């Protein structure tokens, strides 16, 4: 599914030691995923919308990764990954490598990397979400609590038998302060036969030292062709990040004091992935959030419910077609998370190719 390019590549080899680079392997990889999506209640007037958009589950991306054997069980590595919109060719996040950009060393005791990387909670729930974190807001909204990816991080990841460990520190980069704009997080999980389970905790501070805390647990169990997922995510956000991320971009939202009234979330999810045939995979997922102090107002509670169905059919090892349906319902203070009515239905068909 990936095409290996043996160095030296002339355009990449400029300024690099020919001897050292010749011993490295560089892999060009990516996914091009495009879907046609129909959405109800897509604006304040509750109009329906049909659009060509990025993939339902796997955001389109391309990247380069490489490694060099340093001997003695030690390996040098790097990864550069960029997201893009195939419908118009635009780069996501206004960054050349907005998804990942890091360099590191790997050995018998784990891997240490430096650069732009995923948060520990994002990495953790990527393994325990039945959708592996969806790509539409309508099927991935709980994971805004994990922040996703952050800059200026030092990360350790280790695997010892069935035990998986992760720890990350994000440098705040502020003169005179180690805490402003900083991040730290940890995760641990364990594989025990067909079962896997674990937990995560992290904190992100803003420039005023207000804190967004996020924690959770997850588990999955494989039984024959089916894998069952279950998880819990909790959050306390005094920065406003979660509300700003979840509020629909078309709404003008009045906000109170996040520092005095931190948003609180209790999110539960479950789902099943069923490999019906070697080519056909069926997924069902359900997400629920009970929230309080929405948008910085004390006692402003709300709820959100989401159901997702996904069918994926493999045309080959590298090409799939799929169809998906998602339904969202909000109540109370959560009304700001949808553009119009308190419910929204999305239906999409798409195709992805991996290289």
Automatic annotation (TrEMBL):
Q: Where is the Porin domain?
A: 12-332
Q: How does it sit in the membrane?
A: Multi-pass membrane protein
Q: What keywords is this UniProt entry annotated with?
A: Cell outer membrane, Ion transport, Membrane, Porin, Signal, Transmembrane, Transmembrane beta strand, Transport
Q: Which Gene Ontology molecular function entries are recorded, alphabetically?
A: porin activity
Q: Which residues form a coiled coil?
A: none
Gene Ontology cellular component list: cell outer membrane; pore complex
Span of the signal peptide: 1-22
Where primarily located? membrane
Q: Which InterPro entries match?
A: Gram-neg_bact_OMP (IPR050298), Gram_neg_porin_domain (IPR033900), Porin_dom_sf (IPR023614)
**Subcellular location, record wording:** Cell outer membrane
The protein's matches in CDD domains, at most eight in alphabetical order, are given as: gram_neg_porins
Q: Which Pfam families match?
A: Porin_4
Q: Cite a single GO BP annotation.
A: monoatomic ion transport
Spell out the subunit comment. Answer: Homotrimer.
Q: Which PANTHER family does the UniProt record give?
A: MAJOR OUTER MEMBRANE PROTEIN P.IA (PTHR34501:SF9), PROTEIN YDDL-RELATED (PTHR34501)
- The protein's name is Porin
């Amino acid at each position: 599914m990936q095409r290996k390019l043996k160095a030296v590549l002339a355009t990449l080899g400029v300024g690099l030691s020919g001897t050292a680079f010749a011993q490295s392997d560089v892999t060009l990889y990516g996914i091009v995923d495009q879907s046609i999506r129909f959405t109800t209640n897509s604006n304040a007037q509750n109009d329906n919308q049909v659009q060509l958009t990025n993939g339902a589950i796997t955001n389109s991306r391309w990247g380069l990764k490489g490694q060099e054997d340093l001997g003695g069980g030690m390996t040098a590595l790097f990864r550069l990954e960029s997201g893009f919109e195939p419908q118009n060719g635009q780069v996501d996040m206004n960054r050349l490598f907005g998804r990942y950009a890091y360099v590191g060393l790997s050995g018998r005791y784990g891997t240490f990397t430096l650069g732009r990387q995923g948060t520990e909670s994002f990495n953790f729930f990527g393994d325990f979400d039945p959708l592996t974190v969806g790509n539409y807001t309508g099927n991935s909204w709980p994971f805004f609590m994990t922040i996703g990816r952050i800059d200026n991080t030092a990360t350790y990841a280790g695997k010892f038998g069935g035990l998986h460990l992760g720890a990350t520190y994000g440098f705040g980069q502020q003169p005179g302060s180690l805490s402003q704009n900083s991040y730290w997080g940890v995760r641990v999980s364990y594989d025990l036969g067909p079962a896997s389970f674990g937990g995560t905790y992290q904190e992100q501070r803003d420039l005023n030292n207000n804190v967004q805390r996020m924690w959770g647990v997850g588990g999955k169990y494989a039984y024959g062709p089916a894998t069952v997922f279950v998880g819990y995510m909790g959050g306390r956000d005094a920065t406003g990040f979660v509300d700003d991320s979840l509020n629909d971009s078309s709404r003008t939202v009045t906000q109170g004091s996040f520092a005095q009234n931190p948003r609180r979330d209790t999110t539960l999810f479950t789902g099943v992935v069923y490999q019906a045939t070697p080519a056909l995979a069926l997924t069902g997922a359900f997400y629920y959030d009970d929230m309080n102090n929405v948008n910085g107002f004390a006692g402003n509670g709300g709820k959100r419910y989401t159901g997702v169905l996904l069918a994926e059919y493999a045309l080959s090892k590298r090409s799939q077609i799929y169809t998906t349906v998602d339904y969202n319902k909000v109540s109370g203070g959560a009304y700001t998370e949808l553009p119009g009515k308190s419910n929204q239905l999305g239906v999409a068909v798409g195709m992805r190719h991996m290289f």
